[in-house]
Write a structure and sequence with these properties.
CATH class of the largest domain: Alpha Beta
Number of domains: 2
Number of helices: 12
Shape: globular
Structural class: alpha/beta
CATH topology of the largest domain: Spore Coat Polysaccharide Biosynthesis Protein SpsA, Chain A
Number of strands: 9
CATH architecture of the largest domain: Alpha-Beta Complex
Largest sheet: 9 strands, mixed
């Protein structure tokens, strides 16, 4: 079997049918790939809709478990996977028609551990958006993982990549029992261990944008978990960068990019914290932690060309000065 598509699903009955249909509209033979949906304790009709699909498409299987979170669901999917390559797809996203077979051919031809590709943002789940008009695929050079990180401003989300399953196991990488931003450190950790990685300029994935905010849930329990996971992400990126330095990695571009990514999550933390009602002293404590992990002040964040706009420059200037930041947070909350 060539490919295992792993889809964690929690209360996804509004989108799961589009996701599954897109997986079936591929030029691969059903015997060449499997679709593993891990129902993570859904309380809606997700399981029933998947079961209905599995009766028509025998390469779709449903695995149900108690609600353990997205990471645990992906770990469960990996345990059931049989394909040479694995692909993590979210239940509210989908993929372009007749693209997976070409990806697998590329991965096999170049003997890749890791293959990246393009994604397009959409605001709905219309399967018509899965039409693919790209005639040619531009294939980048085959690089080791460190050089890949140094060459590309990689995306962290796992649905940008397919991964050789044996390499995934040998890397020792796995998802943690956490809810938010796990891809932020799992993906670069996995890439860094690859011997053969490449990027194909090829439109494959459809990311369905949501209008909901991660901080809309105002419960203290939710916010504590969210900011705890963001801090964990900053810590894991710090540990990865330091580990690579100890191993003798000398690719300054790769090390700098990991540092920028680390500080990007500090930037995100501050932006999201401003929109909550948590005490400013909580943020002050987090910034002190980030300082110990070389993630604050945001001294390398602006080195990336992606963040050199006037808007980012202004916010970075503000965020780096607590004597300005904290009063501005209080003022913002009074006015909103």
């Amino acid at each position: 079997m060539k490919l295992s598509i792993i889809i964690p699903a929690y209360n996804a009955d509004a989108y799961i049918e589009t996701c599954l249909l897109s997986c079936c509209l591929q030029e691969l033979q059903p015997s060449d790939y499997e679709v593993i949906v891990v129902n993570d304790g859904s309380t809606d009709h997700t399981a029933e809709k998947v079961e209905s699909f599995s009766k028509q498409y025998l390469n779709i299987q449903l695995v149900s478990q108690l609600n353990k979170g997205n990471g645990a669901a992906r770990n469960t999917g990996v345990k059931h996977a049989k394909g040479t390559y694995i692909y993590f797809l979210d239940a509210d996203d989908y993929i372009a028609k007749n693209t997976l077979g070409k990806l697998i051919n590329l991965a096999e031809h170049y003997k890749l551990d890791f293959l990246g590709f393009d994604s397009i943002n959409v605001t709905d789940s219309l399967i018509a958006n899965s039409r693919h008009n790209q005639k040619e695929i531009t294939m980048g050079p085959v690089l080791n993982g460190i050089d890949f990180i140094g060459t590309y401003n990689y995306q962290a989300e796992v649905w940008w990549y397919i991964t050789r399953r044996q390499f995934y196991f040998e890397s020792g990488t796995h998802f943690y029992d956490r809810k938010f931003v796990q891809d932020s450190y799992l993906t670069p950790t996995l890439i860094s261990k690859a011997q053969r990685a490449a990027f194909a300029k090829y439109d494959v994935h459809r990311y369905r944008q949501s209008t909901s905010s991660i901080t809309r849930n105002k419960s203290i329990e939710h916010l504590n978990r969210h900011f705890g996971d963001l801090t964990f992400s900053v810590k894991k990126l710090y540990e990865l960068r330091k580990s690579l330095i100890r191993q003798g990695v000398t690719n300054d571009l790769a090390l700098q990019r990991l540092h920028v990514k680390q500080q990007r999550y500090v930037f995100i933390t501050i932006v999201r914290f401003i929109r909550t009602s948590l005490e400013v002293s909580r943020l002050e404590g987090m910034l002190s932690e980030y300082d110990k992990m070389e993630a604050y002040p945001l001294d390398v964040f602006m080195s990336s060309t992606d963040y050199r706009t006037p808007f980012y420059r202004f916010l970075t200037f503000l965020f780096n000065r607590k004597y300005l930041l904290f009063p501005c947070i209080k003022m913002y909350r009074l006015l909103t």
